[in-house]
Task: structure prediction
Amino acid sequence: MDAGAWSAVGARRELDSAGVPPALRPAYLRSRALNAEHGRTYFLATRLLPPDRRPAVHALYGFARWVDDIVDELGDDSPELRAERLDQLEERLRVALKSGTSDHPVLAALVDTVERHQVDPVLFEDFLASMRMDLTVASYPTRTDLESYIHGSAAVIGLQLLPVLGTVGPPAEARAAAAALGVAFQLTNFLRDVGEDLDRGRVYLPADELAVFGVDRERLLRCRARGRADGPVRRALADQVARTRAHYRAAEPGIGLLAPDSRPCVRTAAVLYGEILDHVVASGYDVFARRIAVPVSRRWAVAARAAGVVLASRAVRGGVTSRFRG
Result:
């Protein structure tokens, strides 16, 4: 069986396990394809979840990716046109959530996931509010300013996922940690993508914290043009790395509050995203000439170890004895 056929088998297994009706399967498959294409680390970690939970994660990712593409696709679309497209999407989402259905595949899967897992619709309003900021806001004077953006762009993602992943106690006890992990992932992306964000006219690092090291937008742009960080920029980025690692530490206790069969997925994602920071540091903060990434071999090694834990746990519970399959 080739890779494509094997992937199709895995997708059908997920949909069967989740009890997704035939009419909605193309919608979920569309979101799954978006996750597989664009969210490599995220998709790999998702495969460590029980099959019945994966479609909901794909649906949430697919919606976020759709919105992100409206905001960030580099083209001739003006901010006004992109804002109009966001308005149209938000109205379609409102109607879909009210009616419980949609003729758009990404929205159809999302609405079904919201209903199945009782995801708070307000979280999508907050997400869209932050995405609108990307159309008009190019920099953030302080961390407080940045945090208002990150709440909707990242913290709410962790909160959307929480009812899908499940908890061992009241969900409210895990909310702060879930939000913190979403923020940690987002801040990691900001550090990895400094160069690409500059190309889009944006800086997602607090200006006052950069200024402590003598760094401003113009200095960052010069580093982008040269393709390397200078001393002050390296020191400023080191400070941002340290701040980001504090969010990972804050999120760590929350993993133990998740349902046991969700922990390997989230822990794997946390490890691999955290290692992006390690590679940023090891590269000498070389975020201006290339995109830092954890090597594929390392991603698979971490996932394989987590898969072993998953299988052992299922076997103990009297479940699975066959080899890990995604």
Summary: Residues 319-326 have pLDDT under 50 and may be disordered. The chain has 15 helices and no strands. The radius of gyration is 20 Å. Residues 231-255 form the longest helix (25 residues).
